[in-house]
Amino acid sequence: MLDKLIITALRGKTAAVLFKDGHAAQIDFEPEAAEEETGVIFVGKVKNISKNINAAFVEYRPGVNGFYSLKENARPIYADGKTEHGTLKAGDEILVQVERSAVKTKDAVLTSNLTLTGQTAVLSAGKSSLGISAKIRDKEWRDAVKRRWEATEHGDCGLVVRTNGEAAGIDKVFEEFAALYERYLVICKAAASRTCYNVLYRPESFAVRAVRDLKICDGLEVVTDLPEVYKELQDALGITDSRAAENSGTAADSEATESSAATADSTAVDSAKMACSMAAGMPSLRLYTDDFPLTALYHLETILSQALSKTVWLKSGGNLVIEPTEALTVIDVNTAKSVSKKTSEETYLKTNLEAAGEIAVQLRLRNLSGIMIVDFIDMKEEESRKTLLAALRRAVTADPVKTVLVDMTPLGLVELTRKKIRRPLHEQVR
Q1: Beta bridge pairs of residue 18
Q2: I need a labelling partner for 134 at 20 to 30 A (CA). Which of 119, 143, 347, 353 fits?
Q3: Strands 329-334 and 370-375
């Protein structure tokens, strides 16, 4: 079944909902204005150096400072393009990228290790190393990439090959890296003629990022009822009006059938063109124009409410109780209404295995990150516990965000960690 990405207005915000095999797999909302600064590159001015914490505070917007680690930024990029500046000092103008937006009383975190992200490749300035997604396991492919990298001119920039790179092919990866490297050089050159606090680069829009960050080699249909989003994606994907009209017209008939069934600061770099190689796994794009609301057609309000609910019911009658806290997320597995003629051990294993699969789904759907503690139903047999851990490990492997099953504690609690990419769903909806 073709994956679908629905981009529409939901609860007053632009939302992107991914459906895999007919089920909602991921929900993201457009970030607030403050969060949108993440990835933006400014010309900043060093306000002061704090030697006791080995850091500088850089003013990147008038009256707004950010934290700049001197340990992590050994090679600042000066706005005038010169390299001989000596030790960084107050008054120096440097290029900084917002690595993490300001949160409550904490300043934004800034870096000179500029990062430009594409669909198959990520350019990282300041490090000339090569990284390859751990999800790409083909040794011959990885070795071929390493050989190609050694023969590639890349200055002081490094490359990270994203998971999509394997399906796109090595040539596409390096074509995109070359485009990103050229963009990086343009940004650095533009800085010399820009005044302090100017924006040199702004990442793509929320909609373009939503498409770019998906693994779309197996096919993806993007459906939106927002004309401005449709136009943005047309530009980013390089789809002409005639092709788009063809897609829209062909799909409109099938959508109408579904509908009737359901009723019963200007930047130096043009970010709209950032998606250099989306053609690596070209999705189809469709503007939904039917009178029946897109949110109702795909039951998005119901799906969102369920994804925010504390309790998730399993087909067996058991349930999960998911409780995010400040320090970690606790997930409790219960037999609840589960009824079975099998022995207690078999019933518990069956419920736990079903819960393991659903936990992997919920981690991605709710975008939970950090430390997770899962309290499965206690089982006496060591073999049952091994079977459960193996099943959970397989389930979380499918998550595009790095998720690690740590171990089961002596108390029978399973520890998981999941990399933080963006805020959890319950915070995005606030």
Answers
A1: 5, 26
A2: 353
A3: parallel
In sequence order, what DSSP letters do the residues of 49-68 get, joined into one string? EEGGGTEEEEEEETTEEEEE
pLDDT tens-digit series, residues 288-325: 999 999 999 999 999 999 999 999 999 989 999 999 99
C-alpha–C-alpha distance, residues 77 and 93, integer Å: 9
CB atoms within 10 A of CB 15: 22
CB 359 within 8 A of CB 366: no
Phi and psi at 45, nearest 5°, equal -120, 130
At 65 the pLDDT is 94
Q: Are 376 and 414 in contact (CB under 8 A)?
A: yes
**Secondary structure (3-state) at 70:** coil
Alpha helices for 215-240 (secondary structure H)? 227-237
**C-alpha–C-alpha distance, residues 147 and 411, integer Å:** 48
Which pairs count as long-range contacts for 103-108, CB under 8 Å and 24+ apart, including other chains? 106/67, 107/57, 107/65, 107/66, 107/67, 108/37, 108/60, 108/64, 108/66, 108/67
359: left (phi over 0), alpha (psi -120 to 50) or beta: alpha
What is the pTM (predicted TM-score) of this model? Answer: 0.80
What pLDDT, on the 0 to 100 scale, is given for residue 242?
44
What are the phi and psi torsion angles at 46 (to 5°)? -70, 120
Q: C-alpha distances in angstroms, 76 versus 42, 90, 94, 111, 184?
A: 13, 13, 7, 9, 15
Q: Could you tell me the CA-to-CA distances from 236 to 13, 200, 205, 233, 402 in Å, in that order? A: 22, 19, 10, 5, 27
Q: What share of the chain is helix, strand, coil (3-state, %, to 5)?
A: 35, 30, 35
Q: How far apart are CA 242 and CA 250, in angstroms?
A: 12
CB atoms within 10 A of CB 364: 21
